[in-house]
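As a warm-up, study this chain.
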Amino acid sequence: MIKFFRKIRQNLLSEGKTGKYFKYAIGEIFLVVIGILIALQINNWNESRKADIALKEYLVKIKSNTLEDIIELDSLTIGRRQIAELCKQARTSILDKTEDENTLLFMSSGWAFIDLYFCPSTGGYEALKNSNYYGKINNTALDSLLTRYHTIIGEIELNEKSYNEYAESQEAYLSTQFDRSLVLAYAFVPPDSLYTKATSQTEYFTDFKNYTSFPAFRNVISLAAWQFDTMIHRYSELKDVGLSIIQEIDKIIED
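Now compare it with the structure written out below.
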């Protein structure tokens, strides 16, 4: 092809057709420029296509992480709701002074001392933020949702940390005030086995009653009755944002 164009130029010069030669030369330059532009456009298209594929891979991972989070949020919600309901009933019993009639209830409400933490799966989001592709979703609905999602995660983390640390401190204090061997035996050892021990049933009951009537115990129960509702609300809020993230990712992936 190059030889063909060179031959045309030589023929025009040899025939003295300078004007036509310059026109031809300009046309040839124009064709070369057009060729370069087309090549650049194809290259840009290929790079953009590769970037879109890479971005979608990151988004698929984020979607998978978000689905994992939602499953964990549902599980935590069920657990906290059950404990909160027990603690609310125990709190009512305290106000009604019917603790002696609800020994089993107070035994069950002791679950308020258990540490429960939401552990989000953030690997996909962190990987995308540290990549060269995060800019492709800047100022989009997905960008706003992801920012909101991880802001709520931070707030949940602080909320849970505050409650769990308080419960741990109260439990540690209770351990200095009581020998919990009788309390734990009364709570977890089958009654038939307790009857065979030297310790009388009255001693178990009295120790457990003293333990559950102590302010440190009741403070945690009362806090859980209120605080868990707040946590459950934040879980629900995070789940809603997570579902919106999945919808936005599906739109991008399907395009």
